[in-house]
């Protein structure tokens, strides 16, 4: 019953925010025709149409209760590697579509959870956590010294790792 009311509350919020977004789009003035600086959303540019969680705790809760894998992107706004990966990630249509099946969190700060830095605190790094709240240490990038690092040229590997995180979900849980 609580899940049902949570879901209807969530849908109500989605509907309201969509309606507000539509209204906001109508008020076009001379100032907005010059490319507007979009307000900073939870996506931080990684995919504005995706639903992002605000905190690690919220992300874990959602992953567990929705039975979806969690994808955590650690990055920094002033890191050229993070910026380059973000651009490719946000423009990659297949990744953006697949990301809809994940609970998403991007962090510009470190968490106190050591599981999120199994091999060090570097950026960008992307970790997958399954709904049993286990960090998937088996889903890594191509670097042996930075297991969870991805570069723009690794976008196909990231995509296949996202698929792997999804498949593992169906076969293991």
From TrEMBL:
GO terms for cellular component: endoplasmic reticulum; extracellular region. Residues 1-21 form the signal peptide. CDD domains: AGR. InterPro entries: AGR/TXD, Thioredoxin-like_sf. It is found in: Endoplasmic reticulum; Secreted. Keywords: Endoplasmic reticulum, Secreted, Signal. It comes from the Eukaryota. One of its GO terms (molecular function) is dystroglycan binding. Pfam families: Thioredoxin_7. The keyword Signal applies. Belongs to the AGR family. This is AGR2 protein. It comes from Bucco capensis. The lineage of its organism: Eukaryota, Metazoa, Chordata, Craniata, Vertebrata.
């Amino acid at each position: 019953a609580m899940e049902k009311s949570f879901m209807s509350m969530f849908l109500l919020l989605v509907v309201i925010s969509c309606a507000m977004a539509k209204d906001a789009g109508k008020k076009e003035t001379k100032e907005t025709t010059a490319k507007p600086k979009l307000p900073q959303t939870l996506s931080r540019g990684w995919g504005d149409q995706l639903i992002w969680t605000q905190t690690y705790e919220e992300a874990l809760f959602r992953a567990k209760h929705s039975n979806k894998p969690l994808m955590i992107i650690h990055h920094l706004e002033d890191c050229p590697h993070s910026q380059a990966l973000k651009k490719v990630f946000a423009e990659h249509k297949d990744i953006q579509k697949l990301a809809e099946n994940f609970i998403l969190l991007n962090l510009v700060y470190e968490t106190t959870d050591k599981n999120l830095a199994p091999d060090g605190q570097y950026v960008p790094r992307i970790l997958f956590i399954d709904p049993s709240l286990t960090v998937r240490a088996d889903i890594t990038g191509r670097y042996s010294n930075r297991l969870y690092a991805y570069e723009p040229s690794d976008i196909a590997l990231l995509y296949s790792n996202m698929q792997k995180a999804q498949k593992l979900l169906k076969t293991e849980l």
